Amino acid sequence: MISIRTSNLHRIPVQNEVLILGGGVAGCAAAIALARKGKSVTLIEREPAPRHKVCGEFLSGEALEDLHALGIDVTSLGAVPIDYVRLAAARRAAEAPLPFPAASLTRKALDAALIAEGIAVGVRVERGRSVQALGRTASNVWQATLDDGTVYEAPTAFLATGKHDLRSHVRPKDPQRWVAFKMYFRLAPAQAAELERASELMLYPGGYGGIQPVEGGIANLCCVVQQRHLARAGHRWENFLAKMQQDCPHLAMRLAGAEPLFARPIAITHIPYGYVRRTTEDGLYCIGDQAAVIPSFTGDGISIALHTARCAAAAYLAAEPAPLFQAKLRSALLAQMRLAEFAADGLNNSLARAALPFCLRVWPGVMRVTASLTRVAQHAAVAPQAVAS
Ligand SMILES: Cc1cc2nc3c(=O)[nH]c(=O)nc-3n(C[C@H](O)[C@H](O)[C@H](O)COP(=O)(O)OP(=O)(O)OC[C@H]3O[C@@H](n4cnc5c(N)ncnc54)[C@H](O)[C@@H]3O)c2cc1C
Question: Using a 6 Å cutoff on CB, does residue 288 contact ligand 1?
């Protein structure tokens, strides 16, 4: 028996088996998987409605497979197919076909569809309510305290708050102090036609950015930069955008005549790229960005969020203890994560930046191999192991 206790100590008994903190990709995916298996699940999401999030909005082949299995039809949501990846640095650009099917879809549309599917399969969704603290009672019950003082309790909790840490569950700091921006543009018709079905990765000192079409005939420019490089642009978006275009004329070409669709870009800081969670407490399954944060250029974060959610749900259903699940997940993710970090360091190196597009022109296979190796495709590697109680 699980209970909700309100701040005035009025107890409202409910039958929850699992509490899910955070209703983004990972939280919704886990909630749907568990509810479909008949579990009573409450999901707490701090935003009252889906909103734009800083994300390149690239959906890899694995992400598309997982979304399909969850009942999400990205095509009907307007997802744009992506067949090519183009790499641009300095004055050079190179293109290669992607070795897997891919698409792009705004996070607003994706998150809305996932929450709706959760509700449809019986997840109790509490929106517009933020978890302030997560702790455990002496009898091993998880307690999530919300901003209005309500306390939700359950024997099992899934931590899926993405880039936001709860006070008692903080991930390590991001030493590079990354800052990320997302801005939508309506491109000039000729540039929109050039970008059709392509995801373009642009390299510049201190970071990289991607531009690709999303539904509604618009383009998403999503970029990351180390704070010390942003400081050189006076911490101002306008200056940074101008500097990116100066360093990468390909971007200047794409944005010529483009209309920005927000007054200001959406921004986030503190992105602990390369983080892979080592341990967790019993009964707390950590998923999505709370489990691992892959460098953004791979376009694989959503896939990892879906994958970790699926594996954690399977582990819970098989009575595999959370610490064992988390250790297995870590060893399954570590190789891809380190390779992606190594590649990200390469993108940030001025010599590599200058040479890469030229190399790719003569050997586009490099891009295909890199794309494949930085995928997290270890579907069987985290098969749950029940532990006798
Ligand atoms: C610059 C950048 C570009 C990226 N581009 C791509 C890309 O193109 N393709 C790709 O696959 N991945 C990309 N990613 C990664 C991807 O966005 C994340 O890996 C993915 O969103 C993680 O999913 P999640 O469910 O863990 O977190 P989220 O989707 O962020 O969901 C977390 C949810 O928890 C909620 N929440 C947070 N705190 C609380 C709280 N206290 N109480 C209640 N709710 C809370 C939030 O409101 C949010 O809805 C990118 C990341 C960055 C930084």
Answer: yes
Tell whether ligand 1 has an atom less than 6 A from the beta carbon of residue 58: yes
More confident residue, 306 or 351: 306
CA of 321 to the centre of ligand 1 (A): 25
Question: Ligand 1: does its nearest atom lie under 6 Å from the Cβ of 163?
Answer: yes
Determine the average pLDDT of the residues in 124-129. 96
For 300-331, the pLDDT digits (tens) are 999 999 999 999 999 999 999 999 999 999 99
The mean predicted confidence, pLDDT, of the chain is 89
Q: Closest ligand 1 atom to the C-alpha of 303? A: 11
Strands 18-21 and 156-159: parallel
Q: With beta carbons less than 8 A apart as the criterion, state whether 123 and 30 touch.
A: no
User: What are the pLDDT digits (tens) for 132-143?
Assistant: 999 999 888 999
Q: CA-CA distance, 301 to 306, in Å (whole number)?
A: 9
- Cα of 94 to ligand 1 centre, how many Å? 29
Q: How far is the CA of 311 from the centre of ligand 1 (A)?
A: 18
What Å distances lie between residue 376 and 64, 84, 308, 339, 382, CA to CA?
Answer: 13, 20, 10, 11, 12
